[in-house]
């Protein structure tokens, strides 16, 4: 594998959990998910506008159609993920990312009648087992552990965001076939700002002034969020251009353990030992599914 591949994977593994940390910091300070996504894309767009002028994107309808769909999915998916972070622990939601590999099995099973391999079924079993481990143990709770897990609003939002981001990746891959990673990144950043701005004005128009004050007061966190998100997205696009995508996706799962650790270290979230063990089990399951496809 090329050194650039390893660099992109390493940066992606670190950038993704850090991006989640800054998203949670902002939502803890009453920032709305749509405005969090909007300021992220807005700051990236400021950086990317000169790049668009120097290297205009292709005019093909295939590129713009795929970028338009992927941008809408990206904003919607990220808004759900940020909303999940606003109401649940980072160290609890991080392991849920393993379900993205499960989501990837569903289209093949439904549309192509692809029967999951033994490795995929073993991976699914491990992910379910890990889910059992990360749920808080409350002896007074009458609900089954798995019922509590899947009824948790944060988990529901997170899984919804994962589904949208999985579909987004398909359209991004198609757009990359007609452009370069840098071009796709610049259009993704600028178009994402337009989409998130429209969404914020439609769904939260009465909160614009108060939200801008919150973002202004936390401008360093906003810059840090834009930096880590931009780094994560650009590295992802570089990997999608033709590197060993299955291996990269498997390695991405290790960021889950870093996410759990940061949840404990930054936000003092509880149950760190159990959540780390559960996360490790889910990571192994996700890797099995990815490498068995």
Structure, explained:
By secondary structure, the chain is an all-alpha fold. It has one domain (3-292). The chain is built from 15 helices and no strands. It has helices at residues 3-28, 33-54, 61-87, 90-93, 99-103, 105-111, 118-134, 145-151, 153-176, 181-203, 208-217, 219-240, 245-252, 255-267, 272-292. α1 crosses α3 (61-87) and α3 crosses α10 (181-203). The longest helix is centred in the first third of the chain and has 27 residues, at 61-87. The protein is globular and about 50 Å long. The two termini are 20 Å apart. The model has no long low-confidence stretch (mean pLDDT 88).
> N-to-C terminal Cα separation, in Å?
20 Å
Number of alpha- plus pi-helical segments = 15
Got a strand count?
0
Please outline the major beta sheet: none
Structurally, how many domains make up the residues? 1
Structural class: mainly alpha
- Morphology call: globular
* Mean pLDDT across all amino acids: 88
Query: Over all CA atoms, what is the radius of gyration?
Result: 19 Å
The percentage of residues in β strands lies in: under 5%
SSE run? HHHHHHHHHHHHHHH
């Amino acid at each position: 594998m090329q050194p650039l591949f390893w660099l992109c994977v390493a940066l992606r593994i670190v950038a993704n959990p850090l991006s989640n940390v800054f998203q949670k910091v902002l939502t803890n300070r009453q920032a709305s998910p749509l405005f969090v996504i909007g300021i992220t894309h807005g700051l990236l767009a400021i950086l990317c506008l000169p790049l668009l002028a120097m290297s205009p994107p292709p005019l093909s309808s295939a590129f713009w159609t795929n970028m338009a769909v992927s941008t809408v999915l990206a904003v919607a998916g990220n808004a759900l993920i940020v909303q999940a972070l606003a109401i649940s622990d980072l160290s609890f939601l991080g392991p849920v990312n393993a379900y993205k590999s499960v989501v990837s099995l569903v289209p093949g099973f439904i549309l192509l009648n692809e029967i999951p391999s033994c490795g995929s079924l073993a991976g699914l079993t491990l992910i379910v087992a890990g889910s059992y481990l990360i749920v808080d143990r409350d002896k007074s709770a009458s609900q089954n552990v798995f019922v509590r897990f899947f009824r948790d609003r944060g988990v529901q939002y997170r899984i919804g965001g994962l589904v949208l981001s999985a579909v987004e990746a398909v359209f991004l891959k198609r757009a990359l076939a007609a452009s370069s990673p840098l071009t796709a990144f610049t259009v993704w950043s600028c178009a994402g700002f337009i989409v998130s701005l429209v969404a914020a004005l439609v769904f939260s128009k009465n909160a614009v002034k108060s939200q801008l004050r919150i973002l202004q007061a936390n401008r360093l966190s906003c810059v840090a969020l834009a930096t880590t998100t931009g780094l994560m997205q650009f590295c992802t696009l570089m990997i999608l251009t033709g590197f060993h995508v299955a291996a990269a996706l498997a390695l991405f799962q290790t960021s889950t353990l870093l996410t759990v650790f940061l949840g404990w270290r930054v936000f003092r979230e509880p149950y760190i030992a159990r959540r780390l063990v559960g996360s490790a089990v889910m990571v192994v399951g996700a890797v099995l599914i990815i490498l068995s496809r």
